[in-house]
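Reference record
================
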Amino acid sequence: MQIVLASQSPSRLMILRQAGVEPVIHPAHVDEDAIIAQLAGAEPDEIVTRLALAKAQAIAPEHPGDVVIGGDSMLLLDGQLQGKPHTPEATIERWRQQRGRTAHLITGHAICLGERRVVEASRTTIHFADASDTDIEAYARSGEPLQCAGAFTLEALGGWFIDAIEGDPSSVIGLSLPVVRRALYSFGLNASDFWTK
């Protein structure tokens, strides 16, 4: 039995590796925009967990005896969910909106083993620094935040611009180890069952 990560996120992979797990990487390809459109008006936690579940369910049939993890993260600011900015221009615009403010990073998790599944959202409060225009532009040009929910990273260059977080740091990076641990326990498994170190 293995852990299968339904993601190509380097951050999610890093979290698992640092926690002693070498997962199988099997990215799920789902139409996130279509799923979000179907969920118009849904609560933010519902949206991110449904995205995570779609990813896990897309590949779970190919891994019937393994633990499959799907995840998705979005930033909630002023009642609006924000995903990845994709461009330096969008990153700069977002940072000008969020600097000096507080927002919530919501990470949806879907952990499946056969027919059993645990679906849970983890919320972490992010206190953004009042970053200068020069730093915002340099950060956007670095390329680092372009594929990150909320246009930031906690574990790399973006760490300069986060004053504080309240909640689970691993969830901000992309995968809550406490959520995964609770799911494993509910399946009668232990985190240490998957350690390779």
Notes: The chain has a mean pLDDT of 96.
